[in-house]
Amino acid sequence: MDLKFREDGSFKIVQLTDLHIGGNPKQEEDLKTFRRIDEVIEAERPDLIAITGDLIWSEVDHPEISYKRVLDHIDKWNIPFAIVYGNHDSEANITRQELFQLQKGYVNSLAESGPDDIHGVGNYTLQIESAHSQDTEAVLYFMDSGDYAPKNIGGYAWIKHDQVNWFASEARKYAGIPALAFFHIPIPEYNAVWSIGKVSGTKNEGICSPKLNSGLFTALLESGDVLGTFVGHDHDNDFCGELHGVSLCYGRSCGYNVYGSLERGGRVIQIYEGKREFDTWIQLGKGNVVSQYKHQEKK
Fold it and tell me: Going along the chain, which residue ranges are E strands?
């Protein structure tokens, strides 16, 4: 399935994150989550749905049922979708490999397991073609940010050096082409952008990034082509901010079966063929839009 810019030169992505679907199909919180997902998608009609982790609670008795519920609900829209995993997706009763096997039969799923010789399940790229040819005009990177750090370090996992090297290798293939990156756990530079960057949006909790910095941001910056990154994980943060020319953005948590005071919704990202910029906003359903932000390359 090819991704292409629209005739007007635009391409729209809806980012959903932190759904935290449980095992009970009749649980009211999960039903509210699915209703909000539908409201967001209906309002925006995107070209791609990107889900950035914590789709389920994996400690339930049958996490495969929870995961299939999410996949069935997204797939019914007949819109291409891509997934990366979060720390809760495989922390208990199912592995990332088993999750990935469950989504193989969905024709709208563009997710790939990625190289076997690097850390994680779900390190892959998607290309967006020109509206008028098969030329690649934008690239999307998806990376598995893992779950938890070793106990002697504590906190959350970091994107490993072999993944950073994989990204750098992929970026060389697509040199000069505008790109975005999606993963679950914010990198440490999210702390810096809030402190010194040009920021728009909400920060209502601490940034739960890894304690160690593996250099992904430096690799993104050195590639020269990544315009922005999009994460989840922290349910009460939804800001975007620019640091050294790269915009670091949170999605808006969509799951009701979990903590968080922000109204549930999804982040929308719109990119443009031939331009190194994007517009983004939070869609709360039924056309209720908040927190608009624009990334433009500095001249």
Answer: 3-4, 10-16, 48-52, 81-84, 124-129, 136-142, 179-182, 198-200, 226-231, 240-243, 246-250, 266-272, 277-283, 289-296
